[in-house]
Amino acid sequence: MQLTHEHQELYRTVRSFVIDELNPHVAEWEKAGMFPAHEVMKKMGDLGLLGITKPTQYGGLGLDYSYEVVFAQALGHCSCGGLPMAIGVQTDMATPALARFGSHELRKQYLEPAIKGEMVVSIAVSEAGAGSDVANIKTTARRDGDDYVINGSKMWITNGTQSDWACMLVNTSDGKPHLNKSLIVVPMDAKGIDRKTKLDKLGMRASDTAMIFLDEVRVPARNLIGQEGMGFTYQMLQFQEERLFGAASGIDGLLNLISETIAYTGQRQAFSQAILDNQYVHFRLAELRTEVEALKALVYQTTDDYLSGKHSPEHIAMLASMCKLKVGRVSREVTDACLQFWGGQGYMWDNPVARAYRDTRLVSIGGGADEVMLGIICKMMGTLPGKKKFEQARAAQAARSA
User: Fold this and answer.
1) Structure confidence at residue 238 (pLDDT)
2) How far apart are CA 264 and CA 54, in angstroms?
3) Closest by CA position to 179, among listed 234, 240, 124, 238
4) Contact present, 299 and 244 (Cβ < 8 Å)
5) Residue 164 contacts residue 187 (beta carbons within 8 Å)
6) Is 241 designated active site?
7) DSSP readout, 343-381?
8) Which pLDDT tens digit goes with each residue over 58-98?
9) How far is the C-alpha of 289 from the C-alpha of 286, rounded, in Å?
């Protein structure tokens, strides 16, 4: 991925915003368990940062996804993980399907104010019994005249106590699990919604996360995104950009953590020498830096392949899953090693390496666990158990039919 002057200017703008507007408040927001989402999103909307790839017709910049990757990478300079995650929900998780498949009226009503930062949004897919197993969600939406009536619950919803609307995945029929789901824009002030339960998390503490209960919630049928029954497909398409965004947003934070660890171990003394002067320590930091650079190269290559239009959706899904897997594994490796080198100081709650250790642990779970990513990669490689026999049987059946 070749970075142009425009890419570099965007990166500088976002990095400056993070350093000047977000980082000074992180400690306060971490203790509060949430950040002022409307205030932050409005500032970002005023800078044109919430609709980089969205249509210009609705206030977006209409740029290709390489600019969103640069945006995500610059967010990595935030001194906590919760804010980049919450912002990513607004830009790359809750709004892509609406931007692609929503009606003009729906996009004017909900997408445009989200791009301006006038509305905060959530993606509501996961449930207590259906995290990575999206097909297993139980929340239903039955048609009643000009409305859908929604019943069920959603779990681990980022921005959930503050959002104005949610892009919600629901079952709209009793059909097959991959064909009975729809995405619906659900206003979060609708009667029958209870979202008072703010969850107490190990990390990502500056970002509010809610459990949402829905009891006979009426939503206009016109709030359906695209076609009924296509929700699972739309959500899978959203996942590719979500995973790329998540991988890109991890890069610079890990590089900064390595640099901070070099500085700390360079001045910390033990047994009459700096910790950094031990060969194991500086060799290990070199290995970690190499791993992060490999992650960056994979993210950039995936972005190039995605934008080229020359590759199959399966190829892009495999690479995006590799990016997601790699950022989770590398984040765990880097934060664990750096915390070790910080010693007792690294174990203190407010230490930046301790915060990174807690925050990045979610990366291997949220948005599809590592094991799910491995399954997708194996499927695309043709190495799932029984897959070869199945394909041989299908080929034999086709030959007999011919």
Assistant:
1) 85
2) 42
3) 234
4) yes
5) yes
6) no
7) GGGGGSTTSHHHHHHHHHGGGGTTTS-HHHHHHHHHHHH
8) 999 999 999 999 999 999 999 999 999 999 999 999 999 99
9) 5
Instruction: Locate 2 and state its tokens.
Output: 């070749």
- Pair of tokens at residue 182: 């729809």
Contacts of 389 (CB under 8 A, 6+ apart): none
Q: Which among 303, 346, 350, 352 has a CA at the least distance from the CA of 323? A: 303
CATH class of 122-229: mainly beta
Dihedral sign computed on CA atoms, order 99, 102, 107, 111: negative
Maximal C-alpha separation, the chain:
80
Domain ranges of the chain: 5-120, 122-229, 232-386
DSSP three-state, residue 160: coil
Residue 75 · residue 246 · CB < 8 Å: no
What is the per-residue pLDDT for 297? 98
Average pLDDT, the chain: 95
Strand partners, 393: none
Running along the chain, 402 residues long, what does each successive block of 10 average in pLDDT? 95 98 98 97 98 98 97 98 98 96 98 98 95 91 98 97 98 94 98 96 97 98 97 91 96 98 96 96 98 98 96 94 98 98 96 97 94 94 71 61 59
Q: How far apart are the C-alpha atoms of 399 and 402, rounded to whole Å?
A: 5
How far is 42 from 59, CA to CA, in rounded Å? 13
Concatenating the DSSP letter of every residue in 266-318 gives HH-EETTEEGGGSHHHHHHHHHHHHHHHHHHHHHHHHHHHHHHS-S-HHHHHH
Neighbours of 320 (CB within 10 A): 28
CATH architecture group of domain 232-386 = Up-down Bundle (1.20)
Amino acid at 32: A
Class of domain 5-120: mainly alpha
Model pLDDT for residues 308-335, shown as the tens digit of each residue: 999 999 999 999 999 999 999 999 999 9
Backbone angles phi, psi at 179, to 5 degrees: -125, 5
Q: Output b/e per residue, 277-286; b: 16+ Cβ within 10 A.
A: eeeebbebbe
**pLDDT, position 160:** 97
Instruction: Please give the structure tokens belonging to residue 140.
Output: 């239903």
User: What is the pLDDT, as a whole number, of residue 389?
Assistant: 53
User: Is there a shared CATH topology between the 5-120 domain and the 122-229 domain?
Assistant: no
* Candidates 30, 68, 242, 291; catalytic one: 242
